[in-house]
DNA sequence: ACTTGGCACTCAGGAACATAGAGTGCCAGC
DNA sequence: GCTGGCACTCTATGTTCCTGAGTGCCAAGT
């Protein structure tokens, strides 16, 4: 149906259109890609490709432009991910290595990715639910007030002030803290609720109300999905590209929920996900594509990151950058 | 020099231009603002106002548009801050009251402000340097590794992992923790360095290297100006307004340093600061104005917030919103 | 059965030109 | 010092025309 040459033509159309941002005609194409055939032949191939829905012409007498379907084929079968240059790799490494804490890692990552791809970068904070408890701390603040601090193995810290139902001495707090840590150390956050369920029963009668209060706040913290926070950077890279509905894209970027869905479900570890134009789950983003990947330390995917740009983007390069950054961030997180 | 009526004309020009986004002519103006004089008279006044630099015409046969100087006069002498409606106040209150922690307060505030003003909102995190230490926690993570957690009276939490020069038992850590808290409780963050300066001397010889390590990390945390983080929201509100250089504005918004300068120095408590067009310290923002105010709990200003929009903005309404939000955030912070 | 050159056709985008209307500046009269 | 009248200036808009890139199709060539 689509022989070798037609695929080559499609590839050429995509590449030229991406680099020039102008509909590409048969003549220019035949010349620049020395396909060894005449423009007329290319025209015939283009007609077929158009009929099949891979390319289209903006108006009757213009060159061709890839459709979403065309980009899809290009990404799936016609292109190879382009690795970063050695210099770029070094730059990433040093830039990320300078981070002082988790917040800093995420901030640096998102900026780095935006700069590298010249597009909008999106990074999700390492998910709480997939990480494990490293330590729980109870800090007395006042007679009936303590601060609950939860530290995870990814370096993330969550804190909440807890109002206690009664005055509790430091020693009882200390006991509770020890108990909590004994049960929860290394526990996956998703398993925390079951793990602490029977904890009050193992306490003397008088400590139970206090424990219950603290536990309910602890569980609340986990449920709050504070973990699913997503940040972005590089919005300026969108300006000047009128092929995307700027306003709608900016609106989408400020909607956490939309962003989350954009980054997609966790896929195969370190597999790149590409969503092209109308494949996107949000109608405001039909002029844009998303390239995303999971990242994490070791084998478990902690969260996802990616970039968003016009459908007409350089997929091989973008995919290379996303993959590389995801890997490096994973390393950094594993190392710290 | 500028009699009452000329000022009225200027006011009318600003108001009309803000609401229509089109140069305003003498005729329309005379009608809509029943000034009691004829268009010809208005024209004369306009000529004077133009000569003085308060208004200008985009091209010879068009209406007039206020200059930055004109807006300045308008803000300073011709307008009154417009208070929010009762409904809006209630909405603010309930929306902010739902915040669970400091991070949430700031996030909600910035969104609220963006929505309220339909412009870009900018909020600075409560400054560390002006708040005080509520608690310092040292959490053992491994034999030679502890986590240092700093909690301030504004609910802010900073954490750092500290690599210790030697293995240190839990009891020694506990002792150090007690000592730290005894010295630092309630201490202004700015005064922390002096306060801990002599602390190692009060320890047994063998504890000093460890203490020194921990203290140096603690001081680093304070210096890192992590506190001066600024976030924004509502960038989508910029789209569609071509009077501002969109790209440049977006770039500015992602530069923490620029944002900080935009919000301005701490001024009189709760005084509104307005920077109009070319008054801005950053050339990319000459088409925009900033309305900012300090906020804090009680008397001390903790940080600043504001909005950024096209020079042609509704100053009275914007100023009202910024002032109101600043106050409410202050209350929330004081209350928690 | 493809490929190719030739050719007529289409149409977006730009240039040139005309038109309408909003707004101005100025002046003479009240 | 205000006002109506009037000539003037431009922008914005619409019309027309033209050019050129690009197409589709056909008939001839391999």
TrEMBL record, chains A, B:
The keyword DNA-binding does not apply. The keyword Hydrolase does not apply. Keywords: Repressor, Stress response, Transcription, Transcription regulation. Residues 103-319 form the Heat-inducible transcription repressor HrcA C-terminal domain. It holds the Pfam family HTH_DeoR. GO terms for molecular function: DNA binding; DNA-binding transcription factor activity. Residues 34-62 form the HTH deoR-type domain. SUPFAM superfamilies: GAF domain-like, Winged helix' DNA-binding domain. It comes from the Bacteria. GO terms for biological process: negative regulation of DNA-templated transcription. NCBIfam families: hrcA (TIGR00331). PANTHER family: HEAT-INDUCIBLE TRANSCRIPTION REPRESSOR HRCA (PTHR34824). Belongs to the HrcA family. Negative regulator of class I heat shock genes (grpE-dnaK-dnaJ and groELS operons). Prevents heat-shock induction of these operons. This is Heat-inducible transcription repressor HrcA. The gene is hrcA.
């Amino acid at each position: 149906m689509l022989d070798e040459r037609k695929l080559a033509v499609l590839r050429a159309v995509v590449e030229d259109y991406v680099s020039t941002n102008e509909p590409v005609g048969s003549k220019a194409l035949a010349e620049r890609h020395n396909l060894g055939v005449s423009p007329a032949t290319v025209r015939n191939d283009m007609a077929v490709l158009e009929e099949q829905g891979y390319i289209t012409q903006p108006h009757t007498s213009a060159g061709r432009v890839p459709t979403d379907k065309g980009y899809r084929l290009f990404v799936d079968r016609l292109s190879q991910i382009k690795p970063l240059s050695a210099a770029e790799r070094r730059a990433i490494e040093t830039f990320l290595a300078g981070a002082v804490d988790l917040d800093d890692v995420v901030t640096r990552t998102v900026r780095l990715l935006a700069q590298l791809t010249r597009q909008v970068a999106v990074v999700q904070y390492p998910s709480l639910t997939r990480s494990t408890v490293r330590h729980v701390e109870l800090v007395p603040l006042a007679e009936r007030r303590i601060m609950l601090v939860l530290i995870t193995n990814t370096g993330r810290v969550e804190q909440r002030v807890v109002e206690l139902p009664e005055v509790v001495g430091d020693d009882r707090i200390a006991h509770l803290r020890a108990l909590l840590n004994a049960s929860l150390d290394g526990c996956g956050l998703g398993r925390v609720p079951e793990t602490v369920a029977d904890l009050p029963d193992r306490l003397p009668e008088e400590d139970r109300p206090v424990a219950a209060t603290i536990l309910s706040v602890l569980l609340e913290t986990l449920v709050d999905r504070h973990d699913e926070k997503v940040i972005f950077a590089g919005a300026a890279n969108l300006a000047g590209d009128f092929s995307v509905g700027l306003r709608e894209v900016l609106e989408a970027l400020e909607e956490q929920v939309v962003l989350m869905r954009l980054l997609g479900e966790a896929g195969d570890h370190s597999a790149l996900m590409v969503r092209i134009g109308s494949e996107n789950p949000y109608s405001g983003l039909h002029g844009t594509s998303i390239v995303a990947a999971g990242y994490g330390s070791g084998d478990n995917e902690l969260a996802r990151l990616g970039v968003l740009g016009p459908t007409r983007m350089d997929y091989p390069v973008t995919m290379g950058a996303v993959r590389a950054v995801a890997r490096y961030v994973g390393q950094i997180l594993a190392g710290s």
